[in-house]
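2024-03-11 09:14:02 INFO worker-7 job=invfold-0412 stage=load source=structure_tokens
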């Protein structure tokens, strides 16, 4: 089961315990899913405050 970072909402693999942003606040309890391919040109990325490409959870508990 994949996990999500509580700070940046990036989805990470189940075996990792630290996110690329440096946070170790990781949760298994998340919902929603968005994939950002072009962070600079994406209106969705701008609305949710994402500035890097990747897979993100919309809600992390």
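2024-03-11 09:14:09 INFO worker-7 stage=emit residues=61
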């Amino acid at each position: 089961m994949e996990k999500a970072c509580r700070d940046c909402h990036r989805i990470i693999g189940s075996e990792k315990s630290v996110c690329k942003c440096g946070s170790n606040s990781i949760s298994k309890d998340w919902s929603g899913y968005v994939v950002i391919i072009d962070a600079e040109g994406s209106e969705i990325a701008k609305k949710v405050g994402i500035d890097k490409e990747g897979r993100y959870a919309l809600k992390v508990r």
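2024-03-11 09:14:09 INFO worker-7 stage=report msg="Residues 31 and 59 are 5 Å apart (CA to CA)."
2024-03-11 09:14:10 INFO worker-7 job finished
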